């Protein structure tokens, strides 16, 4: 049975590139991410990459990673079919609205964020990213 479920918005209908709200996940074993697009049409594209850090304090995810700003793009697992998504590649949505669920399997992870790296139509399209964190 799931205990301590917390659902938190990282992005709420964001219509621009950039990072969202950093979420502290260290007290939870399970981390599930829902990504949902809205307003997508033919030719529209949104690409997101998941950021993670094991630093005690939140890194500046909007700045370059470095020895003093410790974070990286992390791999996620698609809950639809079990395929992995390379952190450096990210997830791309194209042409129509979609909702996708992913597991973040990273022991020792303390912080999570989602970066929108591409949004082809920042007027009509948006991304919502919600993380559910919980224990068994």
Short structural description:
With 136 residues, the protein is an all-beta fold. 0% of the residues lie in helices and 51% in strands.
Structure description:
This protein is an all-beta fold and 136 residues long. The protein starts with a strand and ends with a strand. The mean pLDDT is 95. β7 and β8 (84-85) form a beta hairpin. It is globular, with a radius of gyration of 14 Å. Helices cover 0% and strands 51% of the residues. The protein is built from no helices and twelve strands. The chain has strands at residues 3-14, 18-19, 23-24, 30-38, 45-53, 72-73, 76-78, 84-85, 91-94, 99-103, 111-119, 126-135. The strands form two sheets. A six-stranded antiparallel beta sheet has the order 1-12-4-10-7-8, with no helix packed on it.
> In order across it, which strands form the biggest sheet?
1-12-4-10-7-8
- Helix/strand order: EEEEEEEEEEEE
Overall average pLDDT: 95
The shape, in one word, is globular
Helicity level: under 10%
Biggest β-sheet description: 6 strands, antiparallel
Q: Topology of this protein?
A:
Layout: E1 3-14, E2 18-19, E3 23-24, E4 30-38, E5 45-53, E6 72-73, E7 76-78, E8 84-85, E9 91-94, E10 99-103, E11 111-119, E12 126-135
Antiparallel strand pairs: 1-12, 2-11, 3-11, 4-10, 4-12, 5-6, 5-9, 5-11, 7-8, 7-10
Name the features.
single chain; six-stranded antiparallel β-sheet; globular; mainly beta; 136 residues
């Amino acid at each position: 049975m799931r205990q301590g479920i917390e659902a938190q918005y990282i992005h709420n209908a964001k219509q621009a590139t950039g990072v969202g709200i950093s979420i502290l996940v260290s007290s939870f074993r399970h981390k599930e991410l829902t990504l949902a697009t809205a307003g997508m049409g033919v030719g529209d594209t949104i690409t997101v990459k998941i950021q993670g850090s094991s630093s005690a304090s939140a890194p500046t995810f909007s700045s370059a990673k470095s020895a003093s700003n410790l974070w990286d793009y992390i791999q996620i697992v698609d809950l639809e079919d079990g395929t992995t998504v390379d952190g450096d590649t990210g997830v791309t949505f194209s042409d129509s609205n979609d909702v996708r669920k992913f597991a973040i399997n990273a022991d020792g992870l303390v912080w999570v964020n989602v970066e929108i790296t591409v949004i082809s139509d920042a007027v009509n399209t948006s991304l919502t990213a919600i993380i559910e964190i919980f224990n068994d």
